[in-house]
């Protein structure tokens, strides 16, 4: 879809699991019509997720979304060739994408996780150690989707089987890494997060277009850096009817519906406020 120029120009950054996709079924369901409407309008929909690049590429293709995306909790920004013709930032090629790497190699993350677990007496199990059946049980993914989920480069999801979460988080921080919580897993990261990647991509849009307003949607702790990096933020309700407990942000709105229903409600609000619905 050819970009339409609005002023200011909205760019929507969205989490996937528990936000655009149902936490229980992994389906887009009632958000599909709103997503397609945004695509027809030329409003960029940036998937910003803990999912791997292969997972997101498959999802983009199934939904006919062609915009850039952010994978593995900000580990890398994937730019379809031609979207930003004059890049002044280091990239490498992956399939038909220019890739901006921000994160730490997953091999280093796995070593740090093992060390922190040993230091704190915790028992953890990383996704790299899990078989497909385990991943499917924990996430509701199909085996085909679980294969793509294991193709990790910058983020290691894990479960804490025994031990103190706060102590583990402090130990990981002492080693120079970060720990956060998503919808299904805890995650260990290097110097990356969703916010840093969002800043990188937002700057590219501003250089290309000018007056940009960034919107962020998410439902979990690992979306906090995203919320801090955007102009408008929407916290999607959990299926339980509650919201993730986050520090107060003046520009953060709580959405009164969960998952894709909440996503559609929030994005419809955005389009109306921009008078482009």
Number of domains: 2
CATH class of the largest domain: Alpha Beta
The main sheet comes to:
9 strands, mixed
Number of strands: 13
Query: What oligomeric state do these chains adopt?
Result: single chain
Please compute the radius of gyration using only Cα atoms: 18 Å
Principal-axis shape equals globular
The average pLDDT value, as a whole number, equals 95
Query: In percent, how much strand structure appears in the residues?
Result: 15-25%
CATH topology of the largest domain: Rossmann fold
Unreliable segments of 5+ consecutive residues: none
Helix content: 25-40%
Number of helices: 9
**Helix-strand sequence:** EHEHEEEEHEHHEHEEHEHEEH
Structural class: alpha/beta
Describe this structure in words.
- With 277 residues, the protein is α/β, with parallel strands linked by helices.
- It has 2 domains: 9-103 and 193-273, Rossmann fold (3-Layer(aba) Sandwich); 106-189, Threonyl-tRNA Synthetase, Chain A, domain 2 (2-Layer Sandwich), CATH 3.30.980.20.
- It contains 9 helices and 13 strands.
- Strand 9 and strand 10 form a beta hairpin.
- The longest helix is centred in the last third of the chain and has 16 residues, at 194-209.
């Amino acid at each position: 879809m050819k970009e339409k120029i609005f002023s200011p120009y909205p760019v929507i950054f969205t989490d996937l699991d528990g936000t655009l996709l149902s936490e229980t079924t992994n389906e887009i369901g009632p958000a599909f019509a709103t997503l397609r409407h945004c695509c027809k309008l030329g409003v960029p929909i940036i998937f910003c997720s803990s999912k791997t690049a292969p997972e997101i590429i498959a999802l983009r293709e199934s939904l006919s979304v062609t915009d850039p995306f952010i994978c593995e909790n900000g580990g890398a920004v994937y730019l379809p060739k031609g979207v930003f013709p004059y890049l002044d930032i280091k990239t490498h090629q992956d399939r038909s994408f220019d890739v901006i790497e921000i994160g730490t190699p997953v091999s280093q993350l796995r070593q740090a996780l093992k060390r922190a677990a040993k230091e704190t007496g915790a028992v953890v199990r990383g996704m790299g150690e899990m078989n497909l059946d385990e991943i499917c049980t924990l996430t509701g993914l199909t085996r085909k989707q679980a294969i793509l989920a294991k193709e990790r480069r910058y983020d290691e999801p894990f479960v804490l089987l025994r031990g103190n979460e706060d102590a583990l988080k402090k130990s990981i921080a002492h080693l120079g890494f970060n720990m956060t919580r998503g919808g299904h897993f805890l995650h260990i990261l290097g110097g990356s997060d969703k916010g840093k990647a969002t800043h990188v991509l937002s700057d590219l849009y501003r250089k290309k277009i000018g007056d940009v307003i960034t919107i962020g949607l998410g439902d979990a702790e690992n979306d906090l850096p995203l919320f801090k990096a955007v102009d408008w933020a929407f916290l999607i309700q959990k299926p339980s009817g509650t919201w993730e407990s986050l520090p107060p942000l003046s520009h953060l709105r709580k959405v009164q519906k969960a998952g894709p229903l909440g996503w559609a409600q929030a994005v419809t609000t955005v389009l109306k406020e921009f008078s482009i619905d």
